[in-house]
Amino acid sequence: MNLNNEDIAKLHVLELHREMERCKTATKLRSEHNAATQTKPAVGKLRRQWKSVLDTIAMMGRRML
């Protein structure tokens, strides 16, 4: 296969476009992941609060026995 400079340039541009699309996709996925992880600590904090409340109630019940 004999490629001239114009064909090589077209292949290079095509490769650059593909890389740009991969970077856009990766950036989009990363931002979605970061947005999802920012909401998770609030859920964990809420669970800890409920666990603390339940532990307090359990301790009060033990004292009454």
Structure overview:
- This protein starts with a helix and ends with a helix.
- The model has no long low-confidence stretch (mean pLDDT 82).
- The relative contact order is 0.05.
- By secondary structure, it is an all-alpha fold.
- The longest helix is centred in the middle third of the chain and has 60 residues, at 5-64.
- Helices cover 92% and strands 0% of the residues.
- It has one helix and no strands.
- Which band does the percent of strand residues land in? under 5%
Using only C-alpha atoms, the radius of gyration works out to: 28 Å
From the N-terminal CA to the C-terminal CA, the straight-line distance is: 90 Å
Unreliable segments of 5+ consecutive residues:
none
Q: Compute the number of strand runs.
A: 0
Estimate the helix proportion, in percent: over 70%
**Estimated structural class:** mainly alpha
Assembly category: single chain
Give the overall form: rod-shaped
| Average pLDDT over all residues | 82
Give a short account of the largest sheet: none
Number of helices: 1
The H-and-E topology, N to C, reads as H
